[in-house]
TrEMBL record:
<dbReference type="InterPro" id="IPR029052">
    <property type="entry name" value="Metallo-depent_PP-like"/>
</dbReference>
<dbReference type="InterPro" id="IPR018946">
    <property type="entry name" value="PhoD-like_MPP"/>
</dbReference>
<dbReference type="InterPro" id="IPR006311">
    <property type="entry name" value="TAT_signal"/>
</dbReference>
<feature type="domain" description="PhoD-like phosphatase metallophosphatase">
    <location>
        <begin position="153"/>
        <end position="476"/>
    </location>
</feature>
<dbReference type="InterPro" id="IPR052900">
    <property type="entry name" value="Phospholipid_Metab_Enz"/>
</dbReference>
<feature type="domain" description="Phospholipase D N-terminal">
    <location>
        <begin position="38"/>
        <end position="143"/>
    </location>
</feature>
<dbReference type="Pfam" id="PF16655">
    <property type="entry name" value="PhoD_N"/>
</dbReference>
<dbReference type="InterPro" id="IPR038607">
    <property type="entry name" value="PhoD-like_sf"/>
</dbReference>
<dbReference type="Pfam" id="PF09423">
    <property type="entry name" value="PhoD"/>
</dbReference>
<dbReference type="InterPro" id="IPR032093">
    <property type="entry name" value="PhoD_N"/>
</dbReference>
<protein>
    <submittedName>
        <fullName>Alkaline phosphatase D family protein</fullName>
    </submittedName>
</protein>
Amino acid sequence: MMRIDRRSFLASGLAAAAVWRPLGSARAESFKTDPFALGVASGSPRTDSVVLWTRLILEDASAAVSADPFAPDPQSVADPIDVEWMVAEDEAFSKPVQSGLVRAVPEFAHSVHVEVKGLQPGRWYFYRFRSGDAESLVGRTKTAAESTDAFRLAFASCQQYEQGFYSAYGDMAGKDLDLVVHLGDYIYERSYGAELVRKHGTGVPSMLYEYRDRYALYKSDPQLQAAHAAFPWLAVWDDHEVINNYANDRAPDAPASTAFIARRRAAYQAWFEHMPVHPSLANGFDALRIYDHHRFGNLLGLTLLDTRQYRSPQLQGAAAGDRPERTMLGPVQEEWLGKTLAGSQAKWNVIAQQTLLSERDTKAGPETGYNLDGWDGYHAARGRLLDAVQSSAVRNPVIIGGDLHAFYAADVKRDFADEKATPIATEFVGGSITSDAPSEKSLATALAENPHLKFASDKHGYAIMRLNDRSTEVDFVGIADRKQQNSPASVFQSFAVADGAAGVNRL
Ligand SMILES: [Fe+2]
């Protein structure tokens, strides 16, 4: 049994192994190594359901990645394995709620996605898996409330495994949260950077088994596992889950479209296999709809966007080449977003996307420079998104993002050139969990050149958002040193957004 840096509820849950009652029909299997070494996770919380996840790994994950990268995936020839799942009201499993059997098949890398239905709204549940003589650790999850007056979520992104340890997740796991939102770059396809603290051990993945091995390596981290086991997660991807700076069916470093689409299909399948997402996503990986909307009573409407799969190709050269027909979300998602915002009854409406929505001139002085991989390369598309925010009259829009490896807080303007304009939304970008940050100088330039950017920091960590009836508060949590294991974390800056008044207020 893998022992992780678990919190008290996990420890006492493990102590309850004696009360586990086998259902009798799972095929007995004797495992040489812990098949649950990648941990457990839950996600997609609705008022009456939640998705439980695990992936059985039939050998040590680190051994798998150090093997010959051209060897066939050893699990692809393995048999299906029956897995029992169990949900209880208490961590001791003395009040069982539901249990069942699911077949983990090699076609999906023995991943398990169970949608548990018929649960009570706004309730904590405990869950675990068992197969043969092996048991998983205990996870905790929470359904969405039908009504609530308070909600806490954390958001995180960009966790290059080699560039640092996951101290931020160790800290997050001990917090009082209802949900974690991951905004992309859960894995990185390539190695880069200095002072690497650990190694991928393999090259850039392009085949399905290679992407699987990369996820297995990242998910072998005990602090990441602890954060998954502690809360339900919602996740969207960015580019590094496939390849750097890809756009729809094109990538700067990838060959022709047909070859890239095959690679993207493999990457999308591996993402599905390792995320606590709805089992219905397994229907096909040529395209994968991950944009979605979640409600948490009338307090929070949470809209998750996909800015990678449907976007127009990147501009080559200047932002001036942008044309109105260019898209970031694609027409279908864009129309869906407009309807979703218009239909939301929630007091706070969080739009979770991958990067900084606000304009950011990166060049000092009268010259201008923009990140063409972000919304600044998709000017017209951003305008349409902001039009949808305004025309829908959605209440208290708050944008969250990642990607930049830096924390930002911003007043979102319909026209960023108009310094006097009233903000129409508020934006918070979380720093990276570990990935290399930009220079302090570049952040200072960004703040100087863009008055709507109110704060920036090159620290590593994550953000916590606390919503209630009157305000939303955001804490930026930084870790002292990503190169150290179990580095201490602390809140280094907090903000408030008042009900009915978009804009950043420093606390
Ligand atoms: Fe990143």
